[in-house]
Amino acid sequence: MNEEVKYIYLKAHPLFNNADEHFTKAACACMKVRTVARGENISYGEGEYSKIYLLIQGKIKISDFSETDDELIKDILTAPDIFGDLSLSNNLPAHEFAEALTANSIICCFNVAEFKKLLQESPAMAIGYAGMVNQKLKKMESRHSDLVFYDAKARLIRFIKYWAKTDGNRMGNKIVLHNYLTHSDIAAVIATSRQSVNVLLNELRDAGLLFYNRKKIELNDQFIHH
After folding, report:
1. What is the block-wise mean pLDDT of the chain (226 residues), using blocks of 10 residues?
2. What CA–CA distances, in Å, run from 175 to 50, 60, 162, 166?
């Protein structure tokens, strides 16, 4: 890929926003850019070949499977973000995988060893990376609290509100979400069944709080302040 395009992609990510030209070009030399199709799995690599990814464009879901093959969606990523071997330890979760939720998702791929060298050379980037990982931990803690303290309906409402906050578009008196998640995906995020998600969404629609179809979800202000 053209080095200029790689440079533009890196500078679009918060980890490289304030990096100087020389450092960013050096990072371009040791990374690869991929355009990922919707539904395509993204390998983390193994051992010394483990990878870290910068999400430049698109949406990615991070999932895990139980011993009974039940899917748990651990996170839904919206660009810009990071994923892969976040511990930089070459010791990856056995069943975790990443999948593109949108067409033409763009990711920058680094070998963990090369990425660690970049962090060692740039304290500012290392602090930025630690901050992004810390935000992910806080998000996981919040989800754990939701599972303990809220029922399925409350968890669904809280998830949709978070989705609207991070990825919604204000249109007049409504917030519109591009619906790239299936009912099964939402169920796997909030730890309930697909049937329960369908019933709960119908309840919220019948109450006049939202409208949804396969392409979009529309939330009115009453839902946001519910």
Report:
1. 90 94 95 96 89 97 82 92 92 82 96 96 96 94 92 96 92 92 94 95 94 92 80
2. 39, 21, 12, 11
Provide the 3-class DSSP secondary structure of residue 42.
strand
Token pair recorded at residue 17: 């926003």
**Distance set, CA 17 to CA 28, 125, 193, 216 (Å):** 14, 9, 41, 32
Write out the two tokens for 70: 């039940």
What span, in angstroms and rounded, lies between the C-alpha atoms of 15 and 78? Answer: 15
In angstroms, the CA 103 to CA 97 distance is: 18
The radius of gyration of the chain's CA atoms, rounded to the nearest angstrom, is 19
Tokens 């619906």 identify what position?
Answer: 179
Cβ atoms 62, 121 nearer than 8 A? no
Tokens of 30: 């040791």
Question: 173 is written with which tokens?
Answer: 């008196």
Q: Which runs of consecutive H residues, i.e. helices, occur in 55-193?
A: 112-121, 123-149, 152-167, 183-190
Predicted TM-score of the model (pTM): 0.90
Please check whether residue 110 is in contact with residue 52, taking contact to mean a CB–CB distance below 8 angstroms: yes
In degrees and rounded to multiples of 5, residue 152 shows phi and psi of -60, -40
